[in-house]
Specification:
Order of helices and strands: HHEEEHHHH
Helix content: 55-70%
Number of domains: 1
Largest sheet: 3 strands, antiparallel
Strand order of the largest sheet: 1-2-3
């Protein structure tokens, strides 16, 4: 029993030491570079849903830029997902707006000719206006929301803060590794 407990203790210790991320050793040149960080932006030019932002030397960068620096293809696709659907959503929003305008026009024409009850023609005209406004708002949102990951500071992030923290770590590691490799290949 004692050997079994010793074996389990050694196994748990081994797993914990393997899960700890070792701090990379950087060359002296890479230590002088600015690093990616996550911080809260106090002064904003526009409304942000997420107050935390990714910064490089104090300058905000967008979600798409961070995914490129970190080399995260899956996160990059996650960020671009909304952008891929944008064209179809804008088309349907414009179609809805045009349909609403047509229904409204028909309602107003019928209201003016007194051929149909005024209650029905007036409700048709007003519902067409509402449908047209809904289509216009849908088009506006379809254009604006997919652009958020490309804006710095990003108004609403497409990944969690923990995922961003991991990508910041990977981006810093990748950038520092490239600098160290460049110094090794071109020493002066």
């Amino acid at each position: 029993m004692r050997d079994f407990l010793l074996f389990i203790g050694a196994f748990v210790f081994f797993l914990q030491t393997n899960n700890v991320q070792s701090k990379p050793l950087y060359c002296p040149e890479a230590k002088r570079l600015p690093q990616f960080t996550i911080d809260v932006i106090e002064e904003r030019d526009f409304r942000l849903s997420d107050t935390w932002q990714i910064l490089y030397d104090g300058t905000p960068i967008s979600d798409i830029q961070l995914t490129n620096f970190a080399g995260q293809d899956l996160a990059h696709e996650k960020v671009r997902k909304d952008m891929m659907l944008r064209g179809r959503e804008v088309f349907f929003g414009m179609l809805t707006g045009a349909l609403g305008t047509a229904i409204s026009s028909m309602g107003w024409v019928l209201y003016g000719q007194d051929q149909v009850s005024s209650t029905m023609s007036l409700s048709m005209a007003l519902s067409g206006i509402v449908l047209s406004l809904a289509g216009t708002i849908f088009v506006s949102e379809s254009i604006q929301v997919p652009l958020e990951p490309f804006i710095a500071p990003t108004p609403k992030h497409r990944f969690s803060r923990a995922e961003a923290r991991q990508m910041v770590f990977e981006a810093n590691q990748r950038l520092n590794h490239k600098i160290c490799m460049a110094v090794q290949n071109n020493p002066e």
